[in-house]
């Protein structure tokens, strides 16, 4: 029986362009620092690098030292024993926003051993070097994941990965458990409540839904997350939410949680991973090599452009073959990383990303020609 419900809210930040990431910077300033809400922010390595590179420009724009503030005591740093559940958290994704596993690749070994380590380590290193934080929580771009990848995250010093529950359908209780694989904690985002939906524009209704969801499904922990562009004004033409609207919405949700007098608490993802006592082996719900995602209500891969994904898989195999022959494949991998961005495989994106994909994948292929 659930006595109180813990809400773990996170935002995904992966944009590498000034007009995009300055919006994230403003949102973080207002929500994490000024209000102090314990939101977990997942960054691609590219965005972390760009924020660090433009830290003076961000200061000029916001009159706020974002990089210096993250370096300080506002954000948790569990590796130094600073694990306050009620403070914000800096999490990471792959550096170039590539999936954690290669969709539809029959043999994941080439990807997990040859591609993924660079992507994890680069993001981790920029967080440590520029922000003085060692991330312990990871999120795969677009939620593309298979348990087969767990050991690689654990090898690189991660404690927890956030996965998404679309594939579980209406089994809402299963979405509230902690799952183990290869010593890695898995906490599950619920797809049943998404604060960017119009029905949750009223903060009281949103927190009511969280409280009811926890009690009705015997879940002490409810994980909710979405892209920052849903609330930072980037999607204003589609959803009508300006940056200031988005900031106000997050602040109202946080304030409403505090009004519940402890019946609902807001904690970061790191705390959710350690506090949850309802635990199971992930193979109880998820086959080791099955790939699921969070881009549609079924958790499948229908949103991926198959031909484009096949080209990425082909180049991955070429890289493995050339490496075993003693080739220097570093430059080809850099072009592959750019082409393999999860957004490049999405059917809803247009000509700009298509040209970006084709230019980079073709150059990677050219460099690998024997």
Give a verbal description of the structure:
- Helices cover 42% and strands 13% of the residues.
- With 370 residues, it is an alpha/beta fold.
Descriptors:
single chain, 370 residues, alpha/beta, five-stranded parallel sheet, five-stranded mixed sheet, 14 helices, 10 strands, 13% strand, globular
What's the layout of helices and strands?
Elements: E1 5-13, H1 18-34, E2 40-43, H2 45-53, H3 55-62, H4 66-71, E3 89-92, H5 109-114, H6 116-131, E4 137-139, H7 150-155, E5 160-164, E6 178-181, E7 184-189, H8 203-216, E8 221-227, H9 236-239, H10 243-258, E9 264-267, H11 269-275, E10 279-281, H12 306-324, H13 330-339, H14 351-367
Parallel strand pairs: 1-2, 1-8, 1-9, 2-3, 4-5, 5-7, 6-10
Antiparallel strand pairs: 6-7
Q: What's the main sheet like?
A: 5 strands, parallel
Q: What is the overall pLDDT average? A: 94
Helical amount among residues, as a percent range?
40-55%
Which stretches are poorly predicted, pLDDT < 50 over at least 5 residues?
none
Count of strand segments: 10
Shape: globular
Annotation field: number of helices: 14
**H/E series:** EHEHHHEHHEHEEEHEHHEHEHHH
Strand content: 5-15%
| Radius of gyration, whole Å | 20 Å
Structural class: alpha/beta
N-to-C CA distance: 64 Å
Give a brief rundown of this model.
The protein is α/β, with parallel strands linked by helices. Helix content is 42%, strand content 13%. Helix 12 (306-324) packs parallel to helix 14 (351-367) and helix 13 (330-339) packs antiparallel against helix 14 (351-367).
